[in-house]
Specification:
Blueprint: E1 6-10, H1 14-24, E2 29-31, E3 45-49, H2 50-67, E4 74-78, H3 83-87, E5 96-99, H4 104-145, E6 149-154, E7 159-162, H5 164-169, H6 182-185, H7 190-205, E8 211-218, E9 224-235, E10 241-250, H8 252-268, H9 272-315, H10 321-352, E11 357-361, H11 362-372, H12 374-379, E12 383-386, E13 392-396, H13 397-415, E14 422-429, E15 433-440, H14 472-482, E16 486-491, E17 497-504
Parallel strand pairs: 1-2, 1-3, 3-4, 4-5, 12-14
Antiparallel strand pairs: 6-7, 6-10, 8-9, 9-10, 11-13, 14-15, 15-17, 16-17
Helix pairs in contact: 4-9, 8-9, 9-10, 10-14, 11-13, 13-14
Length: 507
């Protein structure tokens, strides 16, 4: 260490202070006792005795907390008779204890070791700060290329951080928007603000796994954009929400194309021949746009995943557990987002595809999908029972495959963690329809959510517990609706669930 190292000496006897000061002043800067405590001073080492320690022990606790995570060494000098008393302080405030008398060489060595540890602590903290800054800059570049805005709402102060990309989406520069919540609420369309505020209030009161909202948002030029936002809560140690963090994506073009398609479909009944050519063009545009969005979103996701992997490979050994957890979360979220894009693309194609009514051997379809899950079924010792013989249904083959694949995967996912998991398949013939059932003995759910589970992006469990995109059952519902059928579920928490699919014998 050099002369810039600062040592604060707190000794009860002035003659002891003078002796120790004279010993160290040639190599270190000595801080006078009357300046303690002072938050403007950065001590590198504090030396005290039993009496002064007893006087300042609470202050020392505060000082160590103030400079955390930096290491602030405290050295206590004590006589042999006070060793047992002093030892009781070590766990909380004291890092080194020297029993007097001690020779100068040993004292210098102990001080030098403590100051060296202090220096290493500062260097490590600086390195972590530099690495964190580099990681943040690279992540911001990736998010910017994906056109994703971010916001961070402090629920205690009611202040909000809006990222530069968030501001850019609505036409503003970084310094043109404050961190007030009204910057958001004042720009939400008057017809949407009450719904948005109600949803936010309900989410804060009773959070659910996947919070999302669509609303119209005013641009700087006065026009309204369609915004899709997702968010999650951060709780304090008491489990109370203190922070809400989310993303902000402009989906105006997508909404406009969807609206155009809806209007064309409504007019199609009266003007089928006149509008067919135009409808084909719009569908192609939507397919091209969907493919383009899928490609454009996947590209920056690969960048995010690549940069985060590179960061971990290069600096993983120097990161603390929290930093490594952050990088792991980024990578897992990237994979989740990639799967979400794939499922959204399939959902979009399902809605646009033609319904082809043809004979379907329903038991063969069930057997086929069970074979694809054979490893999962065998490894968790599932009992699988098919309670019907081979039966031919007139239905949309693609739709039936989507329904059974998602229901089988759903049953396995929510049952494999229970003892003796089971899946039972049933088929009941009615006068004008067939009712197919898939029953499991998994975790189940509360029936108040029985409708919500079939909506897109709706989940009842945390993604960390049961991975998925929240689209599977929405595709089931969509496929069944396209066959003029209906889907519903019955369940009880802890007692499994039964999903029913009713398919008309004639469309």
């Amino acid at each position: 260490m050099n002369r810039q190292s600062k040592i604060l000496i707190l000794l009860e006897q002035s003659k002891d202070y003078e002796l120790l000061s004279a010993l160290f002043e040639r190599n270190y800067e000595i801080i006078k006792p009357e300046k303690f405590p002072d938050e403007t001073l950065n001590y590198d080492l504090i030396i005290l005795d039993g009496i002064t320690h007893n006087r300042y022990k609470n202050v020392l606790v505060d000082e160590k907390a103030r400079v955390n995570p930096l290491f602030l060494p405290v050295l206590i000098l004590t006589g042999k008779k006070d060793v047992d008393i002093a030892a009781s302080f070590l766990w909380k405030t004291v890092d080194e204890m020297i029993v007097l008398p001690v020779n100068k060489t040993e004292l210098h060595a102990r001080v030098e070791m403590l100051l060296r540890t202090r220096k290493q602590s500062i260097e490590l903290d600086n390195a972590h700060e530099k690495l964190h800054k580099q990681s943040s800059e690279q992540l911001n570049i990736a998010l910017k290329s994906a056109n994703i805005g971010l916001w961070d709402w402090n629920l205690e102060t009611d202040k909000v951080y809006y990222s530069p990309e968030w501001k850019k989406q609505i036409g503003y520069k970084d310094d043109e928007i404050s961190n007030e919540l009204t910057e958001w609420s004042d720009r939400v369309h008057p017809e949407d603000i009450e719904r948005c505020q109600k949803t936010i209030h309900e989410f804060l009161k009773t959070p659910w796994p996947d919070y999302n909202l669509e609303f119209r948002f005013r641009h700087k030029n006065g026009n309204y954009l369609w915004i899709y936002t997702q968010a999650s809560l951060i709780n304090n140690s008491q489990g109370e929400p203190v922070q809400m963090i989310g993303s902000h994506v402009d989906i105006t073009e997508w909404k406009q194309l969807r609206e155009e398609l809806r209007m064309l479909n409504s007019e199609l009944e009266q003007k089928v021949k006149q509008r067919t050519a135009q409808l084909v063009v719009i569908i192609k545009q939507l397919e091209a746009f969907t493919y383009s969005v899928s490609h454009d979103l996947k590209s920056p996701l690969r960048g995010i995943d690549g940069y985060s992997k590179l960061l971990f490979d290069l600096y993983g050994n120097s990161l603390n557990d929290e930093a490594r957890h952050f990088i792991s979360t980024i990578r897992s979220s990237t994979k989740q987002m990639n799967q979400l894009i794939v499922d959204l693309l399939q959902y979009s194609r399902l809605e646009l595809a033609d319904v082809q009514r043809e004979p379907v051997e329903i038991k063969s379809v069930v057997d086929s999908f069970l074979q694809t899950q054979e490893d999962e079924i065998n490894s968790h010792h599932f009992l699988v029972v098919i309670n019907f013989p081979e039966t031919t249904l007139m239905a949309d083959s693609t739709g039936i495959q989507i329904v059974l694949r998602n229901l089988i995967e759903n049953a396995i996912k929510f049952s494999k963690s229970v003892p003796n998991p089971e899946i039972n398949f049933g088929l009941e013939e009615k006068h004008e329809s067939w009712i197919l059932s898939v029953k499991d003995n998994g975790v189940g759910f509360d029936m108040k959510y029985s409708q919500r589970i079939f909506e897109i992006f709706q989940r009842l469990h945390r993604a960390e517990e049961y991975p998925g995109t929240g689209i599977g059952l929405a595709m089931v519902s969509k496929a069944v609706q396209r066959m003029n059928g209906k889907a519903w579920a019955e369940s009880q928490p802890g007692h499994g669930a039964t999903f029913y699919i009713e398919i008309p014998k004639s469309h």
